[in-house]
Design goal:
The chain is α/β, with parallel strands linked by helices. 19% of the residues lie in helices and 40% in strands. A six-stranded parallel β-sheet has the order 3-2-1-4-5-6, with helices on both faces. It has a six-stranded antiparallel β-sheet with strand order 8-7-18-15-10-11. Strands 14-13-12-9-16-17 form a six-stranded antiparallel β-sheet, with no helix packed on it. It is elongated, with a radius of gyration of 21 Å.
């Protein structure tokens, strides 16, 4: 008896930053293209209700939970807002850049038709990025890029003690401290003078922000290490910022622990994806070198 070929329904979520996709034109084009395939179910984030698309709407968490992959339309900030949920449910991310730098995105907003065809063929390469785990005030948070402890609303610097694997590493008098993953090394870390770390390197980067000491320099350590940052003094408090979002305020005597997470965000890439050529292209654009011939 000949067996029947069962085609599995593909569930694709769409998550858009509508401040980047003005009028939802790109979102609507993608929705229309996907709607033509009988083997695709489309989920939409709640923010897209304004577009009146005929689909089922979900909160950010539910969108990740109920989709096989999520198409993210925006810039790196948009990706950061949903990456943790996608990592939690092992939902793949396909990111289209509508922003400026787009280090994490796979494609620019050009040939949408070919991009949808690529997704439907499922001939993917996968780019896995491990998240950071942060423990603070009896709460657990996760970051794809970085965790930042930064001075409060006054201009005075803050003072911190940093320990690595229970051993004292250094005292910092600075505007703040960044602990970055390799993924986040091209974000706030690089602006603060830290190094770029390739995404397949299992590491953290600890980078002081405007340190008041000539010996204070960024350091790269193994991500199996545990980092403790204790706040010795800040006026009136310090901000705990995770992936660009202020989470809680910390007072003198508070501390945070930073370690590696089991969660992994998986990005869909083209088979010929190369991190280093992509990085070079993005850095050239960022530096406006594209206007010069080399």
């Amino acid at each position: 008896m000949q067996g029947k070929c069962i085609i599995k329904l593909m569930i694709i979520g769409i998550y858009t930053n509508l401040s980047k996709d003005i009028g939802g034109k790109v979102t609507t084009s993608i929705f229309d293209l996907l709607s033509q395939n009988n083997f695709v179910t489309i989920n939409l984030s709640d923010e897209l209700r304004i577009l009146n698309l005929k689909g089922e709407y979900f909160s950010r968490n539910s969108l990740a939970q109920n989709s096989d992959l999520v198409i993210v339309l925006g810039g790196d900030g948009t990706i950061l807002r949903i990456a943790k949920e996608c990592a939690l449910y092992d939902t793949k991310i396909y990111a289209i850049n509508l922003g400026n730098r787009g280090f994490l995105t796979e494609e620019e907003n050009f040939d949408i038709n070919s991009q949808i065809n690529f997704l439907l063929k499922k001939e993917y390469a996968y780019d896995k990025r491990r998240l950071i785990r942060i423990s603070a005030k009896n709460n657990i948070f996760f970051a794809l890029n970085e965790v930042v402890l930064a001075r409060g609303s006054r201009t005075k610097t803050m003072k911190c003690e940093v320990m690595i694997n229970s051993a004292l590493f250094d005292y910092y008098t600075s505007d703040g401290i960044i602990v970055s993953s390799p993924t986040g090394s091209t974000a706030y870390n690089i602006s603060a003078g830290g190094p770029i770390i390739a995404p397949d390197v299992e590491a953290f980067v600890i980078t002081p922000i405007c340190a008041h000491s000539l010996h204070s320099r960024p350091i790269v350590i193994n991500n199996q290490s545990s980092i403790w940052i204790s706040l010795l003094h800040a006026e009136p408090y310090a901000h705990l910022n995770i992936d660009g979002e202020d989470i809680i305020n910390l007072a003198d005597g508070d501390s945070i622990e930073v370690s590696s997470s089991e969660l992994v965000a998986t990005f869909i890439r083209k088979p010929d994806y190369n991190y280093f050529s992509r990085l070079s292209k993005k850095m050239r654009r960022w530096s406006d070198i594209d206007s010069f011939k080399i």
